Amino acid sequence: MINVSDALMYFKYYTKTIYLEILKACKGLDYTGRIESNISSLRGYEGCYPIKRLLKKLNINLEDRILDIGCGKGLSLYYSSMFCFERIDGIEYSKKLTKIAKRNARMLKDKRVHIYNCDARIFKHYEQYNYFFINNPFSSEIMEQVVFAIIQSYKIKKRRIIVIYQFPFSIDVFRKYNFKIIYKNFPNVILTFG
SUPFAM superfamilies, from UniProt (predicted)? Predict the structure, then answer.
């Protein structure tokens, strides 16, 4: 027997899937499908759940910058472009996904959106962002290194850091570094630091 929360999650999944197919058909934006990774520490791609409602909960202004860590095809960047961020960036390890994300970004025609093909563990510019989006893109071991890098960036530039984390299976890593949960409704958590 399926419980109510599982049924709701399936409903959200199929609603998201239909919406992504409509975006593809009407605007040519390709955020659809699932792409598995052949690297065990990476989770593959399946596109995030809509984050527009989450972003509405936050006091975003023209000086805020968001970075999607493990941006896949760039779906969170599409949602973020509906808000007044100064800059909207994504980093993605997979060259294949980076190519698709860059194509989607060009089709958005939003000069604030940029995509970089790189490893999140060695990305050197976390201090440029105060918002981060993470959709469970990799293992807890890699998450540990990324969160540590974000904390180190705080030492370079003091600011309030906000992390929107979908499917927060490595939430303990954030707790270890004293991030505070300000919103929690599975599959989403919003955390702050600083």
Answer: S-adenosyl-L-methionine-dependent methyltransferases (SSF53335)
